[in-house]
Amino acid sequence: MLNIVFLLNSWLTSFNQPGLCITVAMLLHYFLLAAFTWMCLESVHFYLALVKVFNVYFPKYILKCCIAGWGIPAIVITLVLIINKDFYGNGSLSESHPYSNFCWIQDNTVFYISVVAYFFIIFLMNTAMFITVLLQIHSVKTRTQKTSRFWKQ
């Protein structure tokens, strides 16, 4: 959906309808945050599968992932809309190219908080999960080598 909204964005902007532009910008923002959130959920699943291998059971695990994956971005979008719906709008890259219009976040502060900071938090969490998994794999390898040497002796 992110790709479809992104590709249709400039065409829909050409209709010069403020409500349509706000909707397209909001959808683009939502699906971008949803992609980031699902990436984070994948790293959590990666951690659970490779580090917490045994005795890990979460009732309705997929339902909880879906609520987080689709719900957290919806909360962010709702907060932005509640604060000011005019944060979304038509931003022309240049006046000499009328087809370069693009519906997106107009306020830099909102962009840095709701996109860049959001991505940075998820990037840090993914990095932490990745390092944890690597350390776990390394410790298993070390223990296996020690056990192997013990049995050889």
TrEMBL record:
InterPro entries: GPCR_2-like_7TM, GPCR_2_secretin-like. GO terms for cellular component: plasma membrane. GO terms for molecular function: G protein-coupled receptor activity. Its main location: membrane. The lineage of its organism: Eukaryota, Metazoa, Chordata, Craniata, Vertebrata. The keyword Transmembrane helix applies. Residues 1-153 form the G-protein coupled receptors family 2 profile domain. It is found in: Membrane. It comes from the Eukaryota. It comes from Aegithalos caudatus (Long-tailed tit). The chain crosses the membrane at residues 20-41, 61-83, 110-135. This is AGRG4 protein. Keywords: Membrane, Transmembrane, Transmembrane helix. One of its GO terms (biological process) is cell surface receptor signaling pathway. The keyword Transmembrane helix applies.
